[in-house]
Amino acid sequence: MANFDNIRLEKGLYCGGSFTRALESIDPSENYKGSSLEGLDAYQRQLKRFDIKVSGAGSDVVEKFFKTSDSATLFPEYVARAVHQGMQEAYVLPKIVASVTKIDSLDYRSITSIPTDDDKALKDVAEGALIPQTVVKTRENLVKLRKRGRMLVASYEAIRFQRLDLFTVTLRQIGAYIAKAQLADAIDVILNGDGNSNSAAETAASSSLSYADIVNLWKDLDPYEMNVLIANNADAVSMLNLPEFKDSAAGLNFHATGKMITPIGAELIRSGSLESGKIIGLDKNCALEMVKAGDVMTEYDKLIDRQLERAAITSIAGFAKIFTDASRVLTV
Length: 332
Prior knowledge:
Elements: H1 19-26, H2 42-49, H3 69-72, H4 75-90, E1 99-103, E2 111-112, H5 117-120, E3 137-138, E4 145-154, H6 156-159, H7 164-192, E5 201-204, H8 211-220, E6 228-231, H9 233-240, H10 248-257, E7 267-270, E8 278-282, E9 288-293, E10 297-298, H11 300-305, E11 309-321, E12 327-331
Parallel strand pairs: 1-9, 5-12, 6-7
Antiparallel strand pairs: 2-3, 4-11, 6-8, 8-12, 9-11, 10-11
Helix pairs in contact: 4-7
């Protein structure tokens, strides 16, 4: 078994982009199978090494990270994990993103295939005849990546005696802010395209929202499945007040779980990032690609050497459309 107690921790472990991955290369988790440490990753084993408890009623104070230079090196990863946890709790992106691509640069060009109606019909191929082709090519323009984040401002003296469990709440909230901003970016790409002349087609509604308008949106999205609807609060309320949405089974599900469903089976997502009068219908399995340049990043020099002060917590991501006609907008 590897001796995780003797690993020398230093800032250089963050340079590769993932502190945990760098630790795992030194201290692989597979070496602990069958031991009391099985199930912990390399970072969690280091927390155990320095007896740092980051959650629960018995959590330690922030000061405990800075008892030694080695344990101080763990602090930026704690911050990143807490922020990532907040992002996951507020994340609705997995409900609308078909694919996530991680890159190690700031330049990325997605691929596309734009089939015609004739291409979608898989016709009989006569003996010796050419098989119809589906052409896949790279996009003309690069995916636009946006850097989203918050500046964490606090002196070490101000938080040194605060419990980590409480401090985690603040960091999770930062993660929630980042997730909300990334959802706004995704909605913008769905509506206006990713710079490759692929804005969403529109279905016009009647003067006031009706169930027939939603059915027409579902129809116009063919051959794709409309499994997600995105609306702002006002339009979501209007939709839920339609008689067809007051179906007893739908109401029971909403009352029991808080999850809003529609009579046509699409999940309803509320977002204040979407302007009033526009409702997005999409096929979550075909519409959108998320491109990430690394995970949550923290300015580890400031967090370690200067014991917090001011440190940026950021995430770089962008979105690209996969199939342009897999999303459509109902304008009311």
